[in-house]
Amino acid sequence: MTSPRRAFFLAPLLISLLALAPRAQAQADYPNRPVRLVVPIAAGQATDILARLVAEQLSRSLGQPFVVENKAGAGTTIGTDFVAKAAPDGYTLVMATSAGFAVAPAIYARLPYDPVRDFAPVTNVGLVIQTLVASRDAPFDNLPQFIAKAKSGAMNYASAGNGSTSHLTTEMFLHRAGVAAVHVPFKGAAEAQPQLIGGQVQFMFDALPAVLPQVRAGKLKVIGVGSAERTPLLPEAPTLAEQGLKGFEAVGWIGMAAPAGTPGAVLDKLNEAVHRAMATPEMQERMKALSFAPAVGTREQFGRFIASEIAKWGETSKNARIAPQ
């Protein structure tokens, strides 16, 4: 027979175990209802298309609908902040972008969320290579010729806007190359590209999916890609690193994250499901068609990658003397 004293000490333990049992069962059954996948970018763009492909695969794999919800605005920070403040139960996720998780801390003085403290990384999903392009009539075809031209006279470059990934990538590139150029910001890449094609600006960095159609049409030429190695999406294009800019790497990226405090078992289940999805021939083909490079990894790897990207773009912003907005 249990003594009153022993029962007194056992009671809190039993209460704790009883309280944990439903939570453990909920994690084991995850997901048992629809999951909301927030995309902090407008519908129809490459990130949105990739998110819908991933959501479709996860719905099949995990047996519950993964519903894509677009919450665009403020450089992806509106949708990202929405998920930062959601319940940490695995039923509200965000497509984590380099813009919202790594660039935003460098350009916004008062970001409403902390990309490290307020999120639990799930996995990276795909990389978008930043590509240095020029009009087909530009008087340079490779990096050494570009640097010589930049040193001989003033050049200007387009970007998708002040503080955009294309802007910061160009500033990092100019700093590393030891040359200068005049910044001409536009309201997005769609507005900048015609000016580049027409020769009003001399060069720009943009995501490979955005410039590839114009490259294939012969309206733009690639001076170099910002990936560490040549991309199979455009194997004839040399990297900037192999042309003399050692260690230079600039890629946009899209991953998945959950609110901080989401149970580890749920995060692991999501990580495994995304890995399975990305390994299918269907996803491999669709990624190639969208000009994304697959980049899945562990939760820990993605967390370290996010931290390194925050540091890189913060340093770039500081070197370029870009005042926080």
What is the chains' assembly state?
Answer: single chain
Cα radius of gyration in angstroms: 23 Å
CATH T-level topology of the largest domain:
D-Maltodextrin-Binding Protein, domain 2
Mean pLDDT value: 90
Structural class, from helix and strand content?
alpha/beta
Domain count, please report it. Answer: 2
The total count of strands amounts to 10
Give me the CATH architecture of the largest domain, please.
3-Layer(aba) Sandwich
Fraction of residues in helix: 40-55%
Shape: globular
What is the strand content? 15-25%
Supply the number of helical segments. Answer: 11
Gap between N and C termini = 69 Å
- The CATH class of the largest domain is Alpha Beta
**Largest beta-sheet details:** 10 strands, mixed
Can you say what the CATH homologous superfamily of the largest domain is? Answer: Bordetella uptake gene, domain 1
Folded structure, characterized:
With 325 residues, this protein is α/β, with parallel strands linked by helices. It folds into two domains: 161 residues, D-Maltodextrin-Binding Protein, domain 2 (3-Layer(aba) Sandwich); 97 residues, Periplasmic binding protein-like II (D-Maltodextrin-Binding Protein, domain 2, 3-Layer(aba) Sandwich). The chain is built from eleven helices and ten strands. Strands 1, 2, 3, 4, 5, 6, 7, 8, 9 and 10 form a ten-stranded mixed β-sheet that branches. Helix 6 links the parallel strand 5 and strand 6. Helix 4 packs parallel to helix 11 and helix 6 crosses helix 11.
